[in-house]
Amino acid sequence: MNDSPTTTRSRKRTNDPEGMRKRVLDVAEESFQARGYHASSIGDLMAAAGVTGGALHHHFPTKKALALAVIEERVASAVEETWIAPVQLAGSAREGVRMVFEAVAAELESQGFVRGCPLNNLAHELSLADPEFRMALAGIFSAWRQAIADKARADRQAGGDGGIDPEHFAALAVAVYSGAMAMAKTAQDAGVLRDCLNALEQGASPASRGGAKRRRRVLLRPGTL
Amino acid sequence: MNDSPTTTRSRKRTNDPEGMRKRVLDVAEESFQARGYHASSIGDLMAAAGVTGGALHHHFPTKKALALAVIEERVASAVEETWIAPVQLAGSAREGVRMVFEAVAAELESQGFVRGCPLNNLAHELSLADPEFRMALAGIFSAWRQAIADKARADRQAGGDGGIDPEHFAALAVAVYSGAMAMAKTAQDAGVLRDCLNALEQGASPASRGGAKRRRRVLLRPGTL
DNA sequence: TCCAAAACAGGATGATCATCCTGTTTTAAA
DNA sequence: TTTAAAACAGGATGATCATCCTGTTTTGGA
């Protein structure tokens, strides 16, 4: 923002490597999410973070190293906070999934636009670009699925009766969320999250049960952004 | 190389605007799928298609115009051939979905690698980049969902018995496929497609508690076409 | 205090990219 | 045959990009 006064030579500099690294990661996480990896130039990132080329290069020698740090430190923790912790705290895997879907849908609707799932956004762009990217992203998907499967397994043991295979249920939950977010991002409408949750909870069978289903109102005006 | 009747050394050029346009679209479709939009340079595309800059610029003035053509002419028809037509020909929406999942899984397994869903790949990278991209991609998602919903609606009328809302079922099917393909691409393993299909067909319920809930009977016998 | 390493500054560099421009050849209608 | 537009060739151009390089300042032990 502003530097030293004009007349006084306040050339005092305070090193703050952790803070500077954090600012770069903040900006990179945001830009990768909004514009993607290839569309985010490090020049833009430098300007947005207020960081010089030397400083950025000191902390992240290459753009790839920066992206890897974003994936491992930010995307992973976003999945952890949004999905893994809530599911572990929920009464059951099924209920945890429902709560996350509803929480995300509500957040997107109040926010008014959809930028998509950070993990899926980067996974689509980078999985085939570099094996290191791919492995880092695959690990996050794996942890995500595992957390849901663990919860479902615990449910099964507590309830005594076995339902669907926990691993399969976890794969389904992650897939539905990922795909619904893709559609929500493209349509800029979070309503599809509710549609999918609704279908999931009704048994996912198109013609197996008569009964009441209700249509939910979409709060977002289509066509915005 | 003596196919020309005249032995003059005048290099005859034959204009083939449609063929040249097709070659460019072929190469662009392939590269956008494998590397993405931003990672595909038009220089690479020119070399791969054997086309000069002037010719490429004549047919596609900008890279954006080329991508829009790929989306509208290639991605849309890929979804049509892979999903819409098979679902319409299937015995039911549910069965059509199952057949597509299995066909894609089998193809990916024999192929040995996973490049992902063309629509989702471009949707993730381009939906937020440009409103024209976003609308073109949203239209394909919409047609995809609509085809499945129409089929499910027809099933319901034919069967008399009403199940889940056809629109919701369609959203779920597209979401599960999209998300499963994202995971398959990142893991480079198509097995998750089978996991998700398995979970879908078992009712998507992770555990039933103490016999309070019974597995729902599905109207359709397996194996009918 | 001294000094080496870490932290930071900021310009340089070469490569790459999408687009544009001028000119030539082909095509089809007049 | 004439002619104008379409089709194609291929280099030019300026912008952008990621990385590197040289130098300066700060920091934390010794």
Please tag this protein with its features.
homodimer, mainly alpha, disordered N terminus, disordered C terminus, DNA-binding
Task: Quickly give the structural class of chain A.
Answer: mainly alpha
| Percent of residues in β-strands of chain A | under 5%
Mean pLDDT across the residues of chain A is 88
First CA to last CA of chain A: what distance? Answer: 29 Å
Cα-based radius of gyration of chain A, to the nearest Å:
21 Å
Shape, per Cα inertia axes of chain A: elongated
Low-confidence stretches of chain A: 1-10, 208-225
Question: Can you describe this structure?
Answer:
2 copies of one chain form a homodimer. With 225 residues, chain A is mainly α. Chain A contains 9 helices and no strands. At the A-B interface, helix 6, helix 7, helix 8 and helix 9 of A face helix 6, helix 7, helix 8 and helix 9 of B. The first copy, chain A, binds a DNA duplex (30 and 30 nucleotides) through helix 3.
